[in-house]
């Protein structure tokens, strides 16, 4: 019991020192690994790219997704007479992989971040190293483009922008979605995507592809949401209504601009391809993309752990989560009330029109004041027109609010995934602890007061005696095996922890980025919103002042 | 107390002088709950002030004043007062009606408009009854029980209304209230209607219809929607304010300012609803009431016209009656002359006549129908017989009766003739006055409409201006968001 408590403490230690994540004894080893990888970067790259696609895909999946389910699957080893579980870190029968399994994962993982750690890392640098970590599985990209070095370059440069996040921020404004056009006799609509360099037409499906690949390859990033599919419009048949298309165009533009503002996503191969590839719509390119788009199923994991609670709550994320919940609630309420007043204003403008009609009708009966009446009616109509225009901007703001809500639900999804990562780590730690306890018991069978174990141990001893085996030898072998497993587990925990921590760090950065991005978007949106209000009331005051003067002069 | 009956000329009383001042305006300065006896029913008394004369009148007294004015001047368009509570209102609010502040405010506004409209009316403004309404220390019931109101005929057709006729106004006219004068019913169809007034009636009807069915409805819709929108803004403002609490820094400030601007929109919208209600919706209501009053005045003229035509009619029939009586009289006279001539020719004939007469009288008494079958010896005998039988049928002294009737008919015709002259003059005078009144009213209505439109525009200017200011502030705050 005392032992387990001690280990417990170690675990907490790891948790609490996020900046100092490596377990004390493993610290230097990890750093060495990281530097070795750095030293022969091209060498590492080559074998890696030689590994067939499925393996690399599998590897990247392992990184992206919870580790222990696929990789560190806990299985009962039947060839072993022990009933203790064994950790299998392997994912394939490939001997190379077996040998490298752990290292590969680490390599793969470190290799994305090596750009910064060119100087021999100190503890401080390690934290930096980790803090720049993000999930980036290069292999599919490499396979697609066939240029691994460029992929690396892209990766390191994206890292560079991560640290100096605000450089080149203004580029995003040049990305526009314009000129929606019906294609193929109205089967679908294409939009012209204008970027700084080029301009191509893309359809909604292409946006969906972009979203999916980004979502799959950058699980720790808040990938901006796409506008809803708007199923109702399909049903109602006004899928290609001007109003609908215009709203979608604005949302799509917002989607691209959000990506372009994102320090990591804007460097993504997929995004650049989407913007700039002339062959994007070739049949072969399309077929190739199908593969990238396949969703990696994370549901299984989430379901398995749906009822598991994180034991060590990270206050930062708890707060983040609470903040998002509050914001969502606010936005939800805002959308609802804004939509209502929007509708009412629309009705009001119609009422003014109707009233104008009535005033015009009065001319028929009161011919004596024809001129004032018709001028007044004109003023009413102008006012109503100005109101409609203002209301249109209100509707745009409403769309903005709506897109915000989807952005926040993306954030919530990522936060959930982060919890998952932490859960993985915690479960592994539990398992390690169990294994260690078992080793202790094997070494000192009678020291503990656990009667159950003693009985079991006694029986095992007896059976072994019957078999004529050397009890000491068996015990020694078992301890050795357990030692192996503990080592493996410690490695795995280290990785998982690293993954979890790095994920957390990225989420933190994403949150900062989103806050900045939001301020930017909020300002633009609120500018438009308040501008249209100011313009409307200015116009209104002018219209009414005009008509009041005209009427007063008509004695 | 000055109790003399009001005339069309200036009465020269204090109130009259006050009203003739430049820029004289009557204000309703307040309204209080009052009760005459400690345990009595409470009512709302309105404080009326002109210059420094102040008096208190209750709604029912306003109502009574309006009724009095329209009875005194049936050809004038007496401005409307706010409508009574409907029974529905009473049922819904029960005893709390008197505490209904918006209603009291509305009445204050509309009663003030009423008083000033009367004061500015070229004739009503000079009516002493109106002056006494404004005078302090005058009990309204005293005014009601003193001339001219106490002497006012029940039916306005029984008095002379126009200045054309040189007769005392606001009193029973001896001739017009004679029982010989026919009283027309409202359904009477004029034989020769005046096309001008027929047109006026149609016009008024059309306008009233349009005003209440179209214009009033559509402007009401705008006001109602504005009210709903005001509520939406109230809610939206709260949402923004809550939102700003979850943000920080300049974004929070900007959203807070937007919340304040939306709140201001709420206040301004609510304010605009009240203003439009008072300065546009109420005048439109007032005008549909006006249309109703115009119809009543036109109806009175219609009755006056009907009265004249009916007098003409009965004069005509009296004349026919008289003619036949006179024809009979002269026939009888001719007969008598012929008889007396016959008498001088032969006395035998008289005996025969006498015999015959007696005989036939007896026969007539027992078998009257057989008279026709008789064969007459001579035309003289036949005529004689006829004369006697006529006398027997009508009465004992047919001649006296006939003469009496002729006299009566002639008297009646004299009265009718006089009445016809009066009504004819009165009608033409009243028509002319009514026409002037209608023209004046139309002009006033046009002016009112224009004023209403201007008020509508000004309310909107204020609304836009206020909103503009608060949104400009919000706009400035948005600019402070730095990225």
Automatic annotation (TrEMBL), chain A:
Keyword check for Heme: no
GO cellular component: early endosome; phagophore assembly site
Keywords: Coiled coil, Cytoplasm, Lipid-binding, Membrane, Transport
Stretches with biased composition (Low complexity): 111-138
Keyword Nucleotide-binding attached: no
Residue ranges constituting the PX domain according to the UniProt record: 154-281
Coiled coil: 310-344
Molecular function per GO: phosphatidylinositol binding
Region: Disordered, residue numbers: 100-138
Membrane topology classification: Peripheral membrane protein
InterPro entries in alphabetical order: AH/BAR_dom_sf, PX_dom, PX_dom_sf, Vps5_C
Places the protein is found: Cytoplasm; Endomembrane system
Record GO biological process: autophagy of mitochondrion; endocytic recycling; piecemeal microautophagy of the nucleus; protein transport; reticulophagy
SMART domains, A to Z: PX
PANTHER family: SORTING NEXIN-4
Protein family per UniProt: Belongs to the sorting nexin family.
Protein name stated in the entry: Sorting nexin-4
Organism: Phascolomyces articulosus
UniProtKB/TrEMBL annotation, chain B:
CDD domains attached to this UniProt entry: PX_SNX41_42
Membrane topology category: Peripheral membrane protein
Keyword Transmembrane annotated: no
Localization (cell): Endosome membrane
Main localization category: membrane
A GO biological-process term: retrograde transport, endosome to Golgi
One GO cellular component, as annotated: endosome membrane
Gene3D superfamilies assigned: Arfaptin homology (AH) domain/BAR domain (1.20.1270.60), Phox-like domain (3.30.1520.10)
Annotated ranges, domain PX: 1-141
Family listed: Belongs to the sorting nexin family.
Protein name as catalogued: PX domain-containing protein
Organism: Phascolomyces articulosus
